[in-house]
Amino acid sequence: MSDRNNATAALADVAAEPGVAKPDPLLVADNVQRSFGGLHAVDVDHLEIQRGAITALIGPNGAGKTTLFNVLTGFDRGGSGDWRFEGKKMSRLPAHRVAHRGMVRTFQLTKALSRLTVLENLQLGATEQRGEAMFASVVRPLWRRQERAIIERADALLARFRLDHLRDEFAGTLSGGQRKLLELARALMVQPRMLMLDEPMAGVNPALTQSLLEHITDLRDEGTTICFVEHDMDMVMGTSDWVVCLAEGQVIAEGPPQAIGSNPAVIDAYLGKQHGAPPAEELTS
Ligand SMILES: Nc1ncnc2c1ncn2[C@@H]1O[C@H](COP(=O)(O)OP(=O)(O)O)[C@@H](O)[C@H]1O
Ligand SMILES: [Mg+2]
């Protein structure tokens, strides 16, 4: 049985209902809320993310997907609620502590620093996500050993993503798709247990999209839990083991990909907000 089948099979008996319990949840979130003025951007009663699976987070533009990622990963600390990762409370931890626990995200708009080289971006990813201060550089021998390990890991990731020939180029010279790969590589510098990818495929050409998808499924097959935001329903159907649909901040539907495509609440949500969302016929095809 392939890993996708394993991950999908583990969820086979789970009811397609918002907030449903999973057999082996890595992340469990309760009452997650984030408002901007009077707008309830996120208002999630209960959500569980199954370990070892690829969960797609879908929903029309403005549904609150990015905000939910921001709150759960500690980049936005203006929210409230309780969430646990591996059974341990993670709510209200700052981003670097969240990353240290093993939950790492990428951004909808890539954060690659264009005036640093590709390698330097990865080095920065390793230290930034561990929340290390520059004083570490004072502790020379230890620092050097760490630095070597970081460079080795960076080189391995660059080879894996076929970016090795760009190692010493400025990140600013990379194509949009290559930046997405760099962003993924940077997130992997800390060997996360869970990857949160915000529109990893946006702006990536079809050839690179295929390779990104393969990297994502490979990571799942190696045991990484993945949650990704995606608009392209073909991508969602082709990759995910489970789909969660957000609308106006709330989970309005979740279930296996096939069930979600024909879910009336999901179709309604997309019809209600045409803004850049996939047309409804894409959902039912
Ligand atoms: N920093 C912010 N200040 C005010 N409103 C925001 C902010 N961030 C997001 N929003 C609003 O919250 C809602 C959810 O946005 P977002 O999470 O980006 O949605 P999605 O990622 O699903 O497209 C939108 O209405 C958006 O305008
Ligand atoms: Mg978004």
Automatic annotation (TrEMBL):
ABC transporter domain location is 27-273
Q: Which SUPFAM superfamilies match?
A: P-loop containing nucleoside triphosphate hydrolases (SSF52540)
Q: What PROSITE patterns does UniProt report for this protein, alphabetically?
A: ABC_TRANSPORTER_1, ABC_TRANSPORTER_2
Q: Among the entry's GO cellular component annotations, what is one?
A: plasma membrane
Kindly list the GO molecular function terms attached to this UniProt entry: ATP binding; ATP hydrolysis activity
Keywords assigned by UniProt, alphabetized: ATP-binding, Nucleotide-binding, Transport
The protein here is known as: Branched-chain amino acid transport system ATP-binding protein
